[in-house]
Automatic annotation (TrEMBL):
This is RAD52 motif-containing protein 1. Its main location: cytoplasm. InterPro entries: DSRM_RDM1, Nucleotide-bd_a/b_plait_sf, RBD_domain_sf, RDM1, RDM1_RRM, RRM_dom. Keywords: Cytoplasm, DNA-binding, Nucleus, RNA-binding. The gene is RDM1. It comes from Macaca fascicularis (Crab-eating macaque). It is found in: Cytoplasm; Nucleus, Nucleolus. Residues 15-98 form the RRM domain.
Amino acid sequence: MAELVPFAVPIESDKTLLVWELSSGPTAEALHHSLFTAFSQFGLLYSVRVFPNAAVAHPGFYAVIKFYSARAARRAQKACDRKQLFQKSPVKVRLGTRHKAVQHQALALNSSRCQELANYYFGFNGWSKRIIKLQELSDLEERENEDSMVPLPKQSLKFFCALEVMLPSYDCRSPGVGLVEKPVDKVEEESGKIAVEYRPSEDIIDVRCEEELHGLIQVHCSPWKQCGQEEEEYLSDFSLEEEEFRLPELD
């Protein structure tokens, strides 16, 4: 059965591995490299984070590893649990289980992450993209305000972009449109709109204005401040399957 891998930050519990009983000998940076090398053999990794054990526990580290694919995470858990991997003593690996009451909004991947994911599954030459239209809308809105004699709001920059992603091997393409606004005097108030629609084997004409795209692609709002939340792991929401995650206590 095929697995759907969305272009979104993986926050699902079945894509998250907790690894503990890591040796205290290597540094956190060295453990990060060893973990990345060992677990990336099973699939593309979104993140590897290494943390020191609590003060009441034996010296050592534990790690949180996120995959884009739940299937890859399951394979890694079965293959690596209670194995020595890169150290003399075995490590423990468990899939995280999120509490049912906890829900988090899915966050979109940034551009570099999207390209990394596309390259992994489609191949470097297996996909391409092209910009259909890029236009600054700030001047248009200012002229409209002047005509209607409405006081101008805070100055901001607004850009409209339409692009297309193509998969030649599958003879399909996906057009998309985005609208981003950036206040000049207050960056944290950024907001934006983004949407993508899949249309296989359909010729896309050169679009000249936003009105021509309105019937082709629907746009929904998405706050841009979410981009800074991608690295948040929501560790407090996870427990472990089969046994609780407890660091060994000192005798």
